[in-house]
Amino acid sequence: MNARGLNPDGTIAREGAPDRVPESFAPVVDAARAEIGARFDATRLHSAYMYGSIPRGTAVPGLSDLDLLLALHAEPTEADRTDARTIERVLDRSHERIDGVGILLHGVATLMSEAERYDGGFFIACLCTPLLGPDLAERLPRYRPTSLLARETNGDLALALPRWRSRAAGAATDAERETLSRTVGRRLVRTGFTLVMPRWEGWTSDLGESAEVFGRYYPECAEQMRIAAAAGRTPTADPAVLGMFLDRLGPWLAAEYTAVHGTKAPRP
Question: Whole-prediction pTM value?
């Protein structure tokens, strides 16, 4: 993998690996593997993956969360979601080194569908690290930092803005505003990065680097994107920051994204 996250052939390299997990987080990963295996047998679970800072090797004890994805043979049921929430609680309460656990549930048919080829498929192939079961990445193509990939991963920002504004209006506590600022900040940085990704010709999931790369092409918005990256790492409850995200940076970014890459293909 080169400095821009690419393989020698120009395709995007998988960003995580089991041997990149920091030693201090190894017990957390082992516990996750055990909990998933105990609650999801082979008739339900096709494969499990981790993603985020832990498999990338950049996790910070006490601050980083554990992100997991379970690919199920069938589409998720309420029973599946209940078991996933139980795993989240057990792992979060048992390991002080992580600041929460999040589990995504998807059916294999959805992840492997043509509609998800450049979204969920890309996520599995390049951003997820195998934890249990056969690796779905072996059934997926090699991805390049193209406009198509940009559009299908982040071309729906405009749809998220009204939902976030509604959450902001209803937020009654600093904790709620902090959670929202983290979510919005991270999404804005990801979208800003993929806006310029084909021109930069590379891939990164690092928030700071993503904001810096974006700023090279849009210097007039560089400071706002740096603030978004900071909120993605250290959330803020400042209503002025959320207002800037939702009323200025977000709408501008959604419009520019549509102009450059188009909008994401609709989902069923």
Answer: 0.91
